[in-house]
Amino acid sequence: MHADRFPLMGLWALASVACLPVRSAAEPARAAIGPIEVLAYHRHYDRQHDAKWPDPFDTPAAACAARDADAIVVSVQTKLLWIDGNTGARLREGAPPFVTEECALATAQTGRGSVIVYAGSEPVALGPLGQPPPARAAVAHSPESNLTLSVLTRHSQPLWVSRVRSTAPGSAIDLAVAGRTAYVSRGDARSHEPVRGFDIESFTEGRSYEVAGCTGLFDDGRSVFAIDDHWAAWRLEPGAPPAATARPGTSLLMDGCSDMRGPLPVALGDGLSAAIDYDRAGAGCDEKEGINLRDDSGRVVARRPLPEGSWRFSSVVIPWDDGLRVIAQRTDRAGFQVWRVTIARGTSDRALPRAR
Q1: Quick one: which of 53, 248, 282, 325 has the fewest CB in 10 Å?
Q2: Angstrom distance (rounded) from CA 257 to CA 74
Q3: Which CATH superfamily is domain 95-247 in?
Q4: C-alpha–C-alpha distance, residues 192 and 173, integer Å
Q5: Could you tell me if residue 105 is left (phi over 0), alpha (psi between -120 and 50 degrees) or otherwise beta?
Q6: Burial of 324 (0-12, 13-18, 19+ CB in 10 A)
Q7: What DSSP line would sit under 310-340, residue for residue?
């Protein structure tokens, strides 16, 4: 299907596919996933080109996103877009602190008020020695770059920026904020980058956390965990080394498509998490994807199959009051969709097989 033929609005009725298997009466009810509603489809074409003939190279992808009150702030490289979380409409835009193809976003409450925390990578060779690179320099997965963390006001005015040299290959960036500490991980299990901490109150660099084979960060709402490539968890706390601990069941994935690093689940509260994932452990990269809800014991308690295509590696799942919002991107399409996915708590069906 051509990129400009995506549906603009409506529900994906998946009547031919049972969203959930029949549960046994002995199992506790947990949650059920409603249908996927497409609130909007955003395309960022260069105005010098005819939108009827979209060129994906003129259409920056959504690099990262996070909730900001009732809106979603989305980075599309040269812009920050604020999108209404209930309608999908664009509200306003602002300038990012730097331009990057790999980033992570979070909002946090500090003594200065509500702020945006923005982490990404910048090349180190584009500016004079000892000076930061130009603000508008794009990153093309430089083999040696800066891991940059910036704190912004909610109107995208920079408050602080910190840069740390990084040699990790171009990869996903994970960001988790707990209290006054922002934890940032860049790379994958093959790189040897530590998890880095930043104090967003005092605007100082914190300690580094050596976690061999770190594959990402998981925030369960109480603690931040670094997950390694042996499926072990390490609790991160300011002023202390990583502490080995039992891995939260809500942080598990099906461990499919081992060729690529998939995003970890997001915690929803009430002992549940959500992720775009496969329906079985060890699934291949081309197998059917869906939204999985997992409980704190590690069981998948609900699943909603997704439309055809690969959505997992380019989409951002965001917890919301009524369930989820998803900045949804297919890897072979330009632009992104905004999905609303409701979750009804207290009703669930039989859990699907557990991941390892």
Answers
A1: 53
A2: 26
A3: YVTN repeat-like/Quinoprotein amine dehydrogenase (2.130.10.10)
A4: 14
A5: beta
A6: buried
A7: --TTT-EEEEETTEEEEEE--TTSSSEEEEE
Residue in 109, 121, 145, 142 with CA at minimum distance from that of residue 63? 121
Taking the domains of the chain in order of start, what are their residue ranges?
A: 1-45+248-356, 95-247
The answer to whether the CB of 278 falls within 8 A of the CB of 300 is no
Contact 147, 196 (CB under 8 A): yes
Mean pLDDT for back-to-back runs of 10 residues, the chain (356 residues): 36 36 44 95 62 55 94 92 96 92 94 94 59 44 74 94 82 91 83 90 95 92 94 94 96 84 91 95 92 96 95 95 96 88 75 44
Q: Which of 304, 301, 255, 302 has its CA nearest to residue 280? A: 255
Strands 289-295 and 272-278: antiparallel
Cα 130 to Cα 244: distance, rounded to the nearest angstrom: 38
Residue type at 218 in one-letter notation: F
Asked if residue 122 lies in contact with residue 141, where contact means CB atoms within 8 angstroms, the answer is no
Judge contact between 166 and 145, C-beta under 8 A: yes
